[in-house]
Amino acid sequence: MKKIDILKKLRTSGLRPTKQRVEIARFLFEREKTFHFTVESLNKLLAKKTTAKISLATIYNTVHSFKTAGHLSEVEVRGNKSYFDTNVSNHHHFYDSETSELIDIDANDIVIQKIPKAPNGKKIKNVEVFINLKN
Amino acid sequence: MKKIDILKKLRTSGLRPTKQRVEIARFLFEREKTFHFTVESLNKLLAKKTTAKISLATIYNTVHSFKTAGHLSEVEVRGNKSYFDTNVSNHHHFYDSETSELIDIDANDIVIQKIPKAPNGKKIKNVEVFINLKN
DNA sequence: TTTCACTTTAGAATTATTATAAACTAGAAT
DNA sequence: ATTCTAGTTTATAATAATTCTAAAGTGAAA
Ligand SMILES: [Mn+2]
Ligand SMILES: [Mn+2]
Ligand SMILES: [Zn+2]
Ligand SMILES: [Zn+2]
C-alpha cells in the first residue's frame, strides 16, 4: 500500500493527516497480510517502531475513526478487551487461546450447508465462524 | 429441575448450599429454556425476584464457580462485558445486536460442509457459529 | 501574523471485574 | 445446646480497559 493510499484512508475517515495519524495508518495498512491487534498491543508496537510519541487517547480515537469508516473491523473474541482487524471483508477466524491469536480464514474456505432461518421479523446480517484451537 | 438437583449443582461445584447460592442456582437452573445473561443483568433480576440481598461479589464468585464446574458456559459476543449461558452443550447462536440478545441454535441445525484444517501443530477444539441479525 | 477549527495529550472519570479483609454462618465436634 | 472453625458474604479497594475532558498545541487560510 502506497503513501497516497494512506492519505486516502485518513481522508475517507474524516481525519486530517497529522504526524500521529499517518504513523498509525502506515503501521496498520502498509502490510501484506491481515493484522489483528488490540489497542494495547498496537500501542506497544508503535512505541517500539516509531520515534514520535503517540498518546493512547490518539490511538483509541484513530482506531475508532477507522472502524467507523470501515477501514478496520472489530472481532468479538476474547474477554474484556477489543480486537481489531485490518481485514474488513467477510471472513472467519481460527482462534488460538494459548497465544490469544487470531488467524484469518477466507470466506470461501468454509461452506455451510444447512442454516436455520432467522427468528420472526429478523433477517440474517452475516454469519461468523470461529474455530477454536488447542495444541 | 428439582431442588435436589440444585443442591447437586452446588455440591459438584464445590460450594456449600448457602442461602445466597441456592437463590442464584435456582434462578439460573430452575427453568425450561436456556438463559443467557451478564452478571449485571443477573444481579438486577435477582434483586427484583428475591427478598434476600445478594452482593455483586457473591454473584461473580458463584457464576465463576459454576462455569469452572461446567454448569455454565461463557459466550464471547459483545464488547467488554461477559455473557454466560446455562446451555453448556455444543451449540451456536443468533445474536441480535438491536437488543443485545442471544438465541440458541441447536448444533444439528447448522451443518458445515467444508472447513479448513488447523494450522501446523494445532488441533480443532470446537467450532462456534454466530449468526448476526438485523431488522 | 493572526485566527480558529481541529488535534493531541495527560489525567480524570467510567465501567467491568477481581482482590481484600473484616464480619458472619453453617455444620462438625464437644 | 455451646463451641469451634473453615468456609462465606459483603463493603470496599484495587485493577484493567475504555471513554471523557479540558487545556495546550498545530497548521492552513484569512
Ligand atoms: Mn470480546
Ligand atoms: Mn465479549
Ligand atoms: Zn481477520
Ligand atoms: Zn446459548
Keywords summarizing the entry:
homodimer; 135 residues; alpha+beta; Arc Repressor Mutant, subunit A; three-stranded antiparallel beta sheet; three-stranded mixed beta sheet; 4 helices; 7 strands; 34% helix; 27% strand; globular; binds manganese (II) ion; binds zinc ion; DNA-binding
Word description of this protein:
- The structure is a homodimer of 135-residue chains.
- With 135 residues, the first copy, chain A, is an alpha+beta fold.
- The first copy, chain A, has one domain: Winged helix-like DNA-binding domain superfamily/Winged helix DNA-binding domain (Arc Repressor Mutant, subunit A, Orthogonal Bundle), CATH 1.10.10.
- In chain A, 34% of the residues lie in helices and 27% in strands.
- The first copy, chain A, has a three-stranded antiparallel sheet.
- The A-B interface holds A 76-82, 94, 96-97, 103, 105, 109-116, 118-119, 121-135 and B 76-82, 94, 96-97, 103, 105, 109-116, 118-119, 121-135.
- One manganese (II) ion is lined by residues 76-79 of chain A.
- The structure holds a DNA duplex (30 and 30 nucleotides).
> Percentage of helical residues of chain A?
25-40%
Strand order of the largest sheet of chain A: 1-3-2
| Largest interchain contact | A-B, 37 and 37 residues
Unreliable segments of chain A (pLDDT under 50, ≥5 consecutive)? none
Main pleated-sheet profile of chain A = 3 strands, antiparallel
Sheet/helix structural class of chain A: alpha+beta
Instruction: Specify the oligomeric state.
Output: homodimer
CATH class call of chain A: Mainly Alpha
CATH topology of chain A: Arc Repressor Mutant, subunit A
Q: Beta-strand level of the residues of chain A, as a percent range?
A: 25-35%
Query: How far apart are the termini of chain A?
Result: 35 Å
The tally of domains of chain A stands at: 1
What would you say the CATH architecture of chain A is?
A: Orthogonal Bundle
